[in-house]
């Protein structure tokens, strides 16, 4: 527990009023900045670690704002000031740094007999012991070093000897202390960085809306985030840390209990599940209890760790080259299954992306039969060492798409490329034979009229958030393409009843329905139309932003530079848009569609009842898709944005909301509306 700072006027202040910056003398400014930092650090601790804030968010914001102004006006820069939490300048690369102490791995097993055996071995060697029982967090470990109580660096695991310096990124995590009070001169601690489940869901939701690929599970999301080169982007993502070990210190510590107490005293976030048990049975019970609670936890754990409590006993037990003899990870039975890879096939997605997929000997993974699992990209296949015939472990992480987690029978030499029988991406598209282009770690079929892409493009074009043409799902899209009726999405508007009735399962009624759906889709707004085109990285929100920035004909010729002036359009997105409109086949399709559909640019077209309001959504509002709501509100003058800031008027909290936006709303004193209040306060104003 961190003590409240004495005599600091900013700790329990109900109101704040400051002298104008111009009237403050430099010495007084320095003093005030220091008191503000101390107070803000304490408030960060109360908010992020203790979960028990002592001042209103509005006051916190005022303190923060004042500190920032003082730092700017008087050049009081300090790399460990709380103002740095918003993320500094982008980095060119992450530097490699040695660890304070090499990071060993843990002996692990899911077999209760093995933990009993571990306990027996220890008792034989050193007599009676107690164990610290802790969750085994499913994230990434970081070593954080403090010098004289000041944050010095944070390093990822890397190869165990050296890792990557992710200091700038870790500093954006509110619960990580930047300065410690009463700390030993030398202190290095270890913890696990993870992404809370709700934040993960919300991040993925945002990614899908933008047309970016969602992360497969919270662990991958955390791993991808901690290594970003732009700390400001990290600050925008929901990372958290639990600390569990002191790896080096000038203080005298005799046991894990003392280490954990020290961590808590200094203000590190330690999981309250951490406890002490006195034998193997205690570890087994602890593990069973956590397994029951697992689904309710905000973070993923994949087992428990038992560590001998007493440090002198640890010394006597020592370590092997790979792991300490005094610790053991007792894993949960996996949400995983083992099976063999029968074949690796390559699937072509809507954007032309080629994804290697393992076809498996079907295996039951906690009640679901899995017969295929994604391998993401060629680099992943190589790294995992998967080839046909290997035994692999399949994971349904976060209950999403199953993926190949690792190769189990790794005695065979790993193949490293095409020449030795390993997997290699095809040089031509497996569906159309078109040229395959490489982009980073991914491969794409360059032929926009590739039937595989075409089927999915048709399906996407007709989907609810796109042109909303009902009746064209996966099956119908396939039929239309396979029958040769649709060779480009523009052909949809040339269909006639006779064409359709000729296909299996189609009658007069269904044909008429489709034609009238197509008819009804004409005159759609430009944003929806752009989204329907399925340009890579252009989800509903970016499509809307592009539509309000440019008329279609201008957009088609826009340079990457001009595109980047649009909100939320970075180099990758700009590149995807220009590449799309530089492809002659796409231009032809768009020109034909333009004739047929006549998309309209109509921001604010239907009224101005909500003029000037900025609204953010989290969770779903029954009866609407997110893009229907955005459309509706925007057509009536509101702007709908994806993150909560001081400029937000309302946060609409629907079903299964995320925590991040709600926290931000609380911080920024933004009014929240449940779906009912939303209907009453906003929808009812629309005529
Ligand atoms: S102790 C020498 N405690 O598990 C052992 N590790 O296989 C040092 N992990 O990479 C690690 N929760 O990222 C320890 N409570 C916990 C842990 C934990 C998760 C991870 C850690 C490490 C891996 C070890």
List the topology elements:
Layout: H1 26-49, H2 57-74, E1 96-98, E2 107-109, H3 112-126, E3 131-137, E4 140-147, E5 150-156, E6 162-164, H4 167-170, E7 186-194, H5 197-210, H6 218-226, H7 231-235, E8 240-249, H8 256-266, E9 275-277, H9 280-293, E10 301-308, H10 311-317, E11 327-331, E12 336-348, E13 353-365, E14 368-374, H11 378-384, E15 391-395, E16 403-407, E17 436-439, E18 442-445, H12 451-462, H13 474-482, H14 497-501, H15 508-520, H16 526-532, H17 540-549, H18 552-557, H19 560-564, H20 571-582, H21 584-597, E19 614-618, H22 626-635, E20 639-641, E21 650-653, H23 659-667, E22 671-673, H24 675-681
Helix pairs in contact: 1-2, 3-9, 12-13, 16-17
The secondary structure category is alpha+beta
Task: Name the beta content range.
Answer: 15-25%
Quaternary: single chain
Count, helices: 24
Write the CATH architecture name of the largest domain. Answer: 2-Layer Sandwich
Uncertain runs are 413-421
How far apart are the first and last residues' alpha carbons, in Å?
A: 55 Å
What coarse outline follows from CA principal-axis ratios?
Answer: globular
The named CATH superfamily of the largest domain: DNA ligase/mRNA capping enzyme
- Hetero compounds: 2-(butylsulfanyl)adenosine
Helix content: 25-40%
CATH topology of the largest domain, by name, is D-amino Acid Aminotransferase, Chain A, domain 1
Strand segment tally: 22
How many domains comprise the coordinates?
A: 5
Mean pLDDT: 90
- Mind telling me the C-alpha Rg? 29 Å
Largest sheet: 7 strands, antiparallel
Highest-level CATH class of the largest domain: Alpha Beta
